[in-house]
Amino acid sequence: SPFAAQEQMQAAEKRRIGLAAAEMIEDGEIVALSAGTTTTQVGRSIHGRKGVTIVTNAINIAMELSHRLDLKIIMTGGLLNKNCFALSGDSGIDSVNAMFYDLAFISVDGIHREHGLTSDSPELGAVNRAMIQQSRKTVVVADHSKFGKVCKMLIAPVAKADLIVTDK
Question: Of 116, 153, 122, 131, which is closest to residue 39 (Cα–Cα)?
Fold first, then answer.
């Protein structure tokens, strides 16, 4: 699948990014995880936290974390993008907007100093934008291959990211 192929690209870097990002999560927080291979690594790296709620539009993240009794998992709903196991659309955005998040971990397809955080998917970009808007702190997780790229859809200006966790 396209998702499996993407998971293999910069796999070691994504694992390290996921580990570093997951360390920021505190007990009792409500955390948004956008769909993406790097945010998948963030989800896999959450350990030793109590009372954490994960809100995600990624079916794969919800399924991977479903066995974790220490985490509460909430799905956003929406239309399924079969290429990346992500939910999007108006109903998904409405459910994202119904909550506030302590942290949002956002996966992007491009990061450009002038053109901002971008996505190849207008639908998923809109969900990411809603997560950023509803979050107290936004952490972009992206490997070095995303820098300098400009994709189809503007998610937000780079200044909307409180922190970018990357490998370089």
Answer: 131
Taking the C-alpha atoms of residue 92 and residue 107, their distance in angstroms, rounded to an integer, is 17
In contact, 166 and 144? CB cutoff 8 Å = yes
Q: How would DSSP label each residue in 125-141?
A: HHHHHHHHHTEEEEEEE
| 133's tokens | 């808007």
pTM comes to 0.95
d(CA 111, CA 69): 35
What stretches of the chain show up as alpha helix (H) in DSSP? 2-8, 11-22, 37-44, 59-65, 90-97, 122-133
Residue positions counted in the chain: 168
Summarize pLDDT for 93-103 with one digit per residue, the tens: 999 999 999 99
Q: Is 89 exposed, middle or buried (0-12, 13-18, 19+ CB in 10 A)?
A: middle
